[in-house]
Each structure stands twice: as structure tokens, then as C-alpha cells.
Amino acid sequence: MFIWLASAQYAAPVLRNSLDKLQTLAVASILERVMKLSTISLVIWLAGFFAVFQSALNALAEVMRFGDRQFYTDWWNSPSVGAYWRTWNKPVYHFMRRHIYSPLVGRGFSGHFASAMVFLFSGFLHELMVGVPTHNILGVAFLGMVVQLPMIYVTAPLEKMQGLNGRVLGNCIFWISFCLVGQPLAALLYFFAWQGKYGSVSRAKA
Q1: Catalytic residue among 94, 99, 112, 126
Q2: At CA 180, angle to CA 182 and CA 51, rounded to 5?
Q3: Helix (H, G, I), strand (E, B) or coil at 136
């Protein structure tokens, strides 16, 4: 209910007000809309995260008497982008490591290649999860996952630096990419594409 109210009350108006800016490619206005959308998209994501990982999975574990309930660790303190992907969704992380990463490494492939295959597969799934409901396979979600690879390699040395400076910088890079570049921009592009097919943008073109 909270997620629906937040989406309808705050996210939807910002998305609708962004359509004309995207049509005219007004870069400054688009950046402003992305920054506005970043706050509410983060709130919605955190609410969804709490509902699934803190509430639903723990309730399911209680019913099934499942002992290992470490579904996530302190991903918000991630000193690098790679640390975030290792800690925010432990069940999926272990699944990918067991069924894609480890078998590839065991067959002689490098760790970098195995990691690339994990993110390519994850990007494909993310694109399906977003593109199928919106009827738009844009490749934005797929590209967003693939771009994580260079970000992981760039921020990995910061995680290993002595002292707090490197870890703090890595955490700042993670939060900026997470809040500004990732979800709000993707939401804006998929909403515009959907409106281009079925909404006001398609009617304006007609």
C-alpha cells in the first residue's frame, strides 16, 4: 500500500512532467527530473527491500523453520560497488556464484570472465523483468547491469585501501550511482517508451 501511494502521489507526477523534456531533449531539465525522481525512487526501493528481505523472507523462513536467515548484510556501508552486489541479496549472490561463477572458474576460465558472464545473465533477466511488463525491450536494464563491471573494477582498489578515506570514497561512488544514475534514469526512459507506444506521446505523434 505504501509503495503504491508513494508511486501515485510522488513518482507518477514527476514522470508525467518529464515527457515534454524528453521529447525536446532538454538536458538540464531532464537532469533536474532525474534528481527529483531519485529521492522517491530510493524510498520506494527501500520499502520494497524491507517488505521482501526483512518481512516476507523472514516470515517464510519462520514457517519453514529455515535456520539460515542472513538474506542480506549491511550493503548500505558498501566500500565498493562489488561489495554491494555481494551483500544486498545473499540468496541470489550465492545462487549465481554456485551455478555460474564457480563452474566457469572450475573449467579454467578466469574470474573476470566468470564475473562478466554473471552480470550478462543478470542483465538479461533484469531486461526481461522490466521490458516485458512495459512492452519495451530497450536494453537499458541490461546495459545498466553490464556497466556495473567497470564500476566494480574501478572501486575495488578503494575497498582495499588502508584507512577510511578509500572506503568512504567507494561508498560515496556507490550511493551516487545507485541513487542518481541507476533507477531514476531507467524509470524515466521506460516510462517515456511506454508512453510513446500507448500513452500521451503516441497520441501526440498521431
Answers
A1: 126
A2: 65
A3: coil
Secondary structure element (H or E) that encloses residue 64, with its range: helix 57-64
Indicate if 94 belongs to the active site: no
Chain-centroid distance, C-alpha 77: 16
Q: Is 26 helix (H, G, I), strand (E, B) or coil?
A: coil
Is residue 51 classed as helix, strand or coil in its secondary structure?
A: helix
Residues in Cβ contact with 156 at an 8 Å cutoff, skipping those fewer than 6 apart? 80, 82
Tens digit of each residue's pLDDT, the chain (206 residues):
788 888 888 888 888 888 888 888 888 888 888 888 888 888 999 999 999 999 999 999 989 888 778 899 999 999 999 999 999 999 999 999 999 999 999 999 999 999 999 999 999 999 999 989 888 888 889 998 999 999 999 999 988 887 778 889 999 999 988 887 778 888 888 888 888 877 755 555 54
Under 8 Å between Cβ of 75 and 88? yes
| C-alpha to C-alpha distance for 135 and 193, rounded to whole angstroms | 9
Going by C-alpha positions, the residue among 47, 18, 16 that lies closest to residue 35 is: 18
Contact between 158 and 167 (Cβ < 8 Å): yes
Q: Which residues contact 190 (CB under 8 A, 6 or more apart)?
A: 130, 131, 134, 136, 138, 140
Q: Which residue has the cell 535456520?
A: 67
